[in-house]
Amino acid sequence: MGNSEAMVAQGYTSAPYGDYNATATVESTGKENASLVNGTGPEGGSSAPVENGKASDEVAVTAPGAEHGHNAVSTLSPEEERLWSIVRANSLEFNAWTALIEETERIAQENIAKIRKVYDTFLAEFPLCYGYWKKYADHEARVGAMDKVVEVYERAVQGVTYSVDIWVHYCTFAINTYGDPDTIRRLFERALVYVGTDFLSSPLWDKYIEYECMQQDWSRVTMIYTKILENPIQNLDRYFANFKELAETRPLSELRSAEESAAVAAASDASKASPSESDGKADEEKSQADGSSEQSPKLKTAGSTDPEELKKYIAIREAMYIKAKEFESKIIGFEMAIRRPYFHVRPLNAAELENWHNYLDFIEKDGDFNKVVKLYERCLVACANYPEYWIRYVLSMETSGSMDLADNALARATQVFVKRQPEIHLFAARFKEQNGDIAAARAAFQLVHSEISPGLVEAVIKHANMEHRQGKPEDAFALYQQVIALEKGKENSTVLPLLYAQYSRFSYLVSGDAEKARKILVEALDHVQPSKPLLETVLHFESFLPVPRQIDYLTPFVEKVINPNSDAQNVASSTEREELSLIYIEFLGLFGDVKSIKKAEDQHAKLFRRSTSELRKRSVDEFLSSDRTKMAKTYNGTPLAQPVSAQAQWSGGYAAQPQAWPQAQAAPAQPQQWNPAYGQQAAYGAYPAGYTAPQAPAPVPQAAAYGAYPAQAYPAQSYAPPVAGAAPVQQPTAAAPQAYYNTYY
């Protein structure tokens, strides 16, 4: 057996994400080896999924010439140079990649080194494009590098363990290349462990049946049909009809496996223990067999097959078939709603996203762990760009006690599929903290601060809160100060007001130092353009601080927003100015004098042409709404089923948290407790991840109750991946599923 044939028979030894091996089997205990980690594709050739890859496999996006010097690889056409420059600037530019591959194949048909370079680099960024793995293997086969072909296929099936299509291509290659039936059968059996129960697995089963029919090994053909009939897959009726036809045209002695033949022989020996009974039964069976052979030409060709034995033989498989059909009737609606079971950079529609959630709900309730894992892996091919499904998978595996699978899914999400999305790393930080790995949690936050989305307010708040929980408030203060200093160096920073507001609030709640908190807000007014959200925060804060109130100091800032000059920049909207005016009047009603109240009301009537009494009408529900309700209105109610595809921008607008300020002289809040459970992981590169970043809804004009922390959303803080030319992806318009855990902690 040659090296490549041995590799096919035994499987590739290098597995992604540590020790996960795609050749592992599924145990009957309900736990699967952690190699059950990658996605599946659709039926037929219209698919496009593939490997999930690993962080260590990623290749830096450099033009071939930059790495290989002045060898054969370094010669690039002008078009290749242009396309390489595009993908170097934006490694997620899918169309540029496909154009580059086509150009390279056209120019360098005989230059396998250049072809390898472009495929390796592309598949590191888009490992789910299974069709390109097949093309890559075909290039290696064209130059006669059989070991390389096997290596490519092994990389593919380890990455895309649950892709029916890639297994079909691999098995077809083995049939056409190797003569040893055992080698080919072992490959088929490897494939069936992972995708044999896939609803769209018919192409693989058909290929296996076709191969065994060529070998004329009818007992193996029957064994394949028996396995098929146990599973609710597509075309089950056809398989049962074909099985019955085979059983009626071949002798049972050819169809039974060695184990079945041994069992029949044992039963025959036992029947000889009572000769009289067995003789009578034999005469009866012989008479029935003679009659049947006259009536059925099929049974006549089946030799000495006993009709009763045949009936019993078929009945066993028919019972399997009926049971599988019953389960198929429960899932067929979900399966038919899956319009795109393969990966593509374009977003899925909202109906299909919702269908995946509903399907997962159903399978999880069914309670079969293997089915749960395999459906998640299928889902994460089509939905690979959606963090919410990665999060759901991680949490599901954690709940089931399968931490190896949870960690593996989290690693794939953070290191490969949604690695440029801040929300996945924020989830990873929470997950790691919850499981006792504080170092990994800090590393996750630091990655967001330094690379993924510097200045992201949500990350700053969550990181500071974590440090407070860990008993390190000074580190939390230092974090706010560092980020504020960086934002002050930017021109017209849109997040600086919110950072100041959150820092002031955090300082007061943690240290109880009202003067420090006030100084932070005063500094904010000196360094940033006054805005409705910032001034609303300041007014609310002043309402419960000890006297004296700084009314005279605040009035010019409020009037600057309410009645801006003609040359003012970043003017608030009319609705915002009107709302701020009402809030200010209400503030003066509590703490001002009659003269200041009259001045503010006259100014309001002049600017907005309406009386304050008319505009201050609020429903009882709105006035008494709790902070939790306000938070739901401004943050938690946002759509979560949003794609984060290659070209997507993260519009995770961080709305101002509508959390209530404490009452006057309130004691500092106690840190939120977490329950560490697992040992620490040393490096962030090893941690898993996945979670959906909420997107702030458009602010809805409403006059919030003054007694609560302002619910008005700050302008959305948009995030663009750190690459040039990324185009936003249109989001689904339908309502999306809710989050699987609380956003703030």
From TrEMBL:
Ranges of Low complexity composition bias in the record? 266-277
SMART domains with a match to the protein in the record: HAT
Q: Where in the cell is it found?
A: Nucleus
Question: What GO molecular function annotations does the UniProt record carry, in alphabetical order?
Answer: pre-mRNA 5'-splice site binding
NADP recorded as keyword: no
What's a GO biological-process term for it? Answer: mRNA 5'-splice site recognition
Principal place where this protein is found? nucleus
Keywords, A to Z, come to: mRNA processing, mRNA splicing, Nucleus, Repeat
Q: Which Pfam families match?
A: HAT_PRP39_C, HAT_PRP39_N
Cellular component GO terms, alphabetical: commitment complex; U1 snRNP; U2-type prespliceosome
Q: Which domain of life is it from?
A: Eukaryota
Q: Does the keyword Signal apply?
A: no
Region annotation (Disordered) ranges: 33-52, 266-304
Annotated Basic and acidic residues bias: 278-288
Residue stretches of biased makeup (Polar residues): 289-304
InterPro entries the UniProt entry points to: HAT, HAT_PRP39_C, TPR-like_helical_dom_sf
Q: Which family does it belong to?
A: Belongs to the PRP39 family.
Query: What is the protein name for this chain?
Result: Suppressor of forked domain-containing protein
Organism of this sequence: Brassica cretica (Mustard)
